[in-house]
Amino acid sequence: MKYDVPMELLHWADGIQCAVTICDEAGKILYMNDMSRETFARHGDIIGHDLYSYHPQRAQEQIRHMLATGETNAYTITKNGHKKIIYQTPWKKDGKIAGLVEISIPLPADMAHYDRDKQ
Q1: How big, in percent rounded to 5, are the helix, strand and coil portions of the chain?
Q2: How many CB atoms lie within 10 A of CB 63?
Q3: Residues 101/88, Cβ–Cβ less than 8 Å
Q4: Which residues contact 70 (CB under 8 A, 6 or more apart)?
Q5: Comparing C-alpha atoms, which of 89, 100, 86 is closest to residue 39?
Q6: pTM to 2 decimals?
Q7: What are the residues whose beta carbons fall under 8 Å from the beta carbon of 88, sequence distance 6 or more?
Q8: 2: helix, coil or strand?
Q9: Which residues on adjacent β-strands are paired with residue 101?
Q10: Neighbour-count burial for 9-42, b at 16+ CB within 10 Å, e otherwise
């Protein structure tokens, strides 16, 4: 099914307050939104570069695992005094894993939590 997507929607992640990075199945960086480019600015423009070269060995193994299995990886970190949730998940094209998407979302210190199971 083909959709007519408005041009501004193709860049939906450019202005949001979280980092979005997309790579292909070989680990080549295809897309970085504004915040992702700011996060990695010290490396210069890394779109088109190998994602593995910016990660330690343990993370490289996790990336390979997700690309092989289609599993999602999610965790929280504290970096420079700010807590974030990192959500990494494969994206697919024609039913096959085509790469990974990583979304890094800053979390407020006083973030509310609602247990919808108890309502």
Answers
A1: 30, 35, 35
A2: 19
A3: yes
A4: 90, 92, 97
A5: 86
A6: 0.87
A7: 62, 63, 66, 72, 73, 74, 100, 101, 102, 103
A8: coil
A9: 22, 89
A10: eeeebeeeeebbbbbbeebebbbbbebbbeebee
The candidate with the shortest Cα–Cα distance to 37, out of 20, 23, 24, 50, is: 20
Q: Which amino acid is at 67?
A: L
pLDDT digits (tens, 9 = 90+) for 55-67: 999 999 999 999 9
Over range 3-32, report the average pLDDT. 86
| Rounded average pLDDT over 18-38 | 95
Give the H or E element holding residue 57: helix 57-69
Which run of H or E residues covers position 20?
Answer: strand 19-24
Strand partners, 19: 104
